[in-house]
Amino acid sequence: MSMVEQTATLVPEVGPEVGLSEATAGDFIALLKPRVMSLVVFTAFVGLMAAPVPFDPLFAAIAILSIAIGAGASGALNMWYDADIDRLMSRTARRPVPAGRMLPGEALGFGLVLSFLSVMTLGLLVNWLAGGLLAFTIFFYAVIYTMWLKRWTPQNIVIGGAAGAFPPVVGWAAATGSVSLESIILFSIIFLWTPPHFWALALFKSGDYGRAGIPMMPNVAGEASTRLQIFIYTLIVAPIGILPWVLGYASAGYGIVATALGAGFIYYAWGVFRMAPADRVMLPAKRMFGFSLLYLFGIFAAYLADSLVARFLAAGIF
Amino acid sequence: MSGERNQFEETVKLTDKQRKARRSRSVAIAIGLAILVVIFYVATIAKFGPSLLSRPL
Predict the structure, then answer these.
(1) Angle, alpha carbons A276-A91-A146 (nearest 5°)
(2) What secondary structure letter does DSSP report for A67?
(3) Which positions, given as ranges, span the membrane (chain B) (predicted)?
(4) For B8, which residue in chain A has the nearest alpha carbon?
(5) pLDDT tens digits for range B1-49
(6) Which of A40, A95, A187, A242 could be a cystine partner for A165, CB 3.0 to 4.6 Å?
(7) 3-class state of residue A194 by DSSP
């Protein structure tokens, strides 16, 4: 057999074995979880703008970009580790790794490289407290939440919610080089908002989580207990949302908006609490899930507007 | 044997889909690296100012 013939017969057999990737740049962008990243960028930006220090647009942009890439990196690490359960759930089955468009190693390498780059950029160019907090956030999401809590306890998103709550603290630290009570309140709002937000989703997606063997609250404690816990969490988060005004960090305008949004959140959670056990459409849970996104966006947008007005007033623009 | 193996590796043919995907990744990496270079260049100038250029050689 000549070499040419040997090659011709061997090539088609080894193609898949040598791991030739069909992942496009778009698949790598999907690994960054752009929708989650947009919320991270927004909350980090609010933390950065709310800080009572002069605004430096260049370093603010570098900080936000680093935080966004860091958040994306933790998303990539999450998709690498969770590929086995992602392929069992309708919501996640089309992600690049479970769909077979990308090799697991590619996702892992991408996540590790971006983690390193984002932390080093934030640390070297902005400050090391912010860089350290970003590194801890990535570690918390990828290791503590994804690898440990998610498959182990129904409190997974209660504790794991801290990872999503850190961005405004990182933003604040990037601007000031410190962590203060104001940034801790912003952290608390997201931290306490996460369980009712995710449990509303878990109620109408419990089949998905059950198939994947993830111990979400509705699968473990039952729907009635989950509905009660959702309601209790909203009763806690609504007053925390008003705290910046009560403590004098924000104006009455913010206080009014936060009170209205908090009341709305409780109203929708009450609807979920009263939902009939036989209700399989779960419209109240779907409505509450939608409103929870509006709530968090509204609270942070109001806080941002309030901070901007305070800055303009201090600069004598108004 | 190793000569045969090299010959064998060199003959791996990419499909159209793989070639397009590789090109897309290469372009994205180039853009990413260019952005990183610009960020570090601009940030270095902004951080150290004109004194950066007047150091003893």
Answers:
(1) 100
(2) H
(3) 27-48
(4) A7
(5) 555 555 555 677 888 888 999 999 999 999 999 999 999 999 988 888 7
(6) A187
(7) helix
Q: Say if CB A286 and CB A205 are below 8 A apart.
A: no
- Chain B interface disruption, residue of A24, A64, A106, A116, most B CBs within 10 A: A24
Radius of gyration of chain B (CA): 22
To the nearest whole Å, the CA of A15 is away from the closest chain B CA by 7
Q: Hey, what amino acid is at A5? A: E
Cα–Cα distance list, A2 to A12, A14, A85, B4 (Å): 17, 19, 47, 12
List the structure tokens of B45: 């100038």
Beta-carbon contacts below 8 Å between A and B: 57
| Helix, strand and coil percent figures for chain A, each rounded to 5 | 75, 0, 25
pLDDT in tens, A235-259: 999 999 999 999 999 999 999 999 9
Can you read off the two tokens belonging to residue A214? Answer: 């993830």
- Check: CB of residue A172 under 8 Å from CB of residue A182: yes
